[in-house]
Amino acid sequence: VVSYISDGKCDVSGIPKAVNWEDFISKDDDPPLDFEQLPFDHPLYVMFSSGTTGKPKCMVQSSGGVLLNHLKELILSTDVKRSDVLNYITASERPQNVIPPVSLCITI
Q1: Residue 48's beta-bridge partner residues?
Q2: Which residues contact residue 74 at a Cβ distance below 8 angstroms, ignoring those fewer than 6 apart?
Q3: Closest C-alpha to 58, from 70, 48, 67
Q4: Looking at the domain assignment, is residue 11 inside a domain?
Q5: Does 50 map to a domain?
C-alpha cells in the first residue's frame, strides 16, 4: 500500500508493508534489484475463463510458454526488428503487453 496524500505524511504504521509516497519515490536508499532465473514452466499468469459455457475454469500459464507465444506473434506476425520503435499503448491492467517488445530489445 502506498499512501500518496501530498499534504504531509500520514501515519501508515498500522498498515502492514505500507509506505508514504515521498518515501516510496525517494532515491536516498534504493536497494539493489535482485533477479532470479526461473524454470520455463514457472507459473506466470493464473486466470479463470469467463464461464460462458459452464463453470469458470482455472488456467495457469507458464512464463516460458507466454514469452514464446509473445515472441512468435511479434517476430512472425508483425515482422518487428530490434531497430524498430513501437508506440505501445496498453491499459494499466495489461502490463503483459509490454513484455514482448522489451524481450526483443525493441524501443518502446
Answers
A1: 58
A2: 80, 100, 101, 104, 106
A3: 48
A4: yes
A5: no
The domain in which residue 1 lies consists of 1-32
How many angstroms from the chain centroid is the CA of residue 100? 11
* DSSP three-state, residue 75: helix
Judged on CB neighbours under 10 Å (0-12, 13-18, 19+), 106 is middle
Count of domains observed in the chain? 1
Q: What is the pLDDT of residues 53-98, one digit of tens each?
A: 889 999 999 989 988 888 888 778 777 787 888 776 766 656 666 6
Nearest-angstrom CA–CA distance, 106 and 104: 5
What pLDDT is attached to residue 60? Answer: 93
21 with 2: CB under 8 angstroms? yes
- Indicate the pairing of strand 43-48 with strand 58-62: antiparallel
In a domain, 26, yes or no: yes
Q: What is the dihedral of CA 49, 63, 100, 104, to 10 degrees?
A: -170
What is the reported pLDDT for 58? Answer: 92
